Amino acid sequence: MEASLSHGSREMGHMKDFLLKGVALSEDESLLVETVRDLCRNEIAPRAAEVDREEKFPWDNIAKINEMGLNGLFIPEKYGGNPISKNAWFMILKEISKACPSTGIIFATTSHGCHPIVQFGTPEQKKRFLPPILKGALAAISITESDAGSDAKAMRAQAIKKSDGYVLNGTKSFVTTGDVADILTVFVKVKEENEIVGLTPFILTKDMAGLRAGKIEKKMGLRGSSTSEVILEDCYVPADHLLGAPGGGFKILLSSLNSSRPNIA
Question: Acyl-CoA oxidase/dehydrogenase middle domain: which residues (predicted)?
Answer without folding.
Answer: 140-235
